[in-house]
Amino acid sequence: MTDANFDLHAPHGTWLIKLYAPWCGACNRFAPEFTALARAARVSHPQIRLGEVDVDANPGLAARFMVARLPSLYYIENGTVRTLDGVSRTAAFLHQYLKDEKWRTVEPWSAALSPFAVGPRILGYVGLAGAWMAGIASELTQLPTWAYAAITVSILGVLFVATQFLSVPAVPQPPPSPSQKQKLKKRNTEGKKTK
After folding, report:
1. Is 169 left (phi over 0), alpha (psi -120 to 50) or beta?
2. pLDDT digits (tens, 9 = 90+) for 88-108
3. Relative to the CA of 60, which of 2, 46, 160, 174 has its CA 20 to 30 Å away?
């Protein structure tokens, strides 16, 4: 599951989603258990789909779920989200947990905090923007020194031109000629007579 396809799939049906990071030791230890659970659930609970989200590759979802620790498990049923905290991370336990429907005892997320709500979606976009800026910063660190100088001079040049353009005074209008003054005076007196 990714930032791009999450909203196409997760709001519909039943999902057990694992959020993880490749560098996380606990995530790496849990990976074979989750794979075993997926195999077992495919037979015993075909209505439950299992998905994985790499939080490094999908910062928008990491922000939307407000991930505080890894790995994180979420049970989603038709858009209702439950966090499965404090649940043993073994395939056998999770399989029995799903079979006994113990997830029903977990309080669902409020509609306002759900990753499907507007606020967390905006937070997801902020996460994506932050990852994009971090990528640009990473690319910039690869540039030679002369490139930094060229970029700086270019930015300063654009700012200078913009400030000069914006600070140009308006062209003053010449004073009206005597004939124009008479026409204006006539219009003003005619306007007063009609009122």
Report:
1. beta
2. 999 999 999 999 999 999 999
3. 46
* CA atoms within 13 A of residue 182's CA, in its CB half-sphere: 3
Instruction: Find where tokens 């659970």 sit.
Output: 37
Beta bridge mates, 20? 54
What the block records as the tokens of 29 is 């230890």
CA dihedral for 46, 47, 48, 50, sign (positive or negative): positive
Residue-wise pLDDT for 155-165, tens only, equals 888 888 888 77
pTM: 0.68
Domains of the chain: 6-134 (3.40.30.10)
User: Which residues, listed in sequence order, are joined to residue 17 by a DSSP beta bridge?
Assistant: 51, 74
Which runs of consecutive H residues, i.e. helices, occur in the chain? 6-9, 25-44, 59-64, 91-99, 118-140, 145-166, 178-194
Q: What is the Cα–Cα distance from 75 to 40, expressed in whole angstroms?
A: 17
Q: How far apart are CA 22 and CA 39, in angstroms?
A: 21
Q: What angle do CA 150, 153, 154 make, to 5 degrees?
A: 85
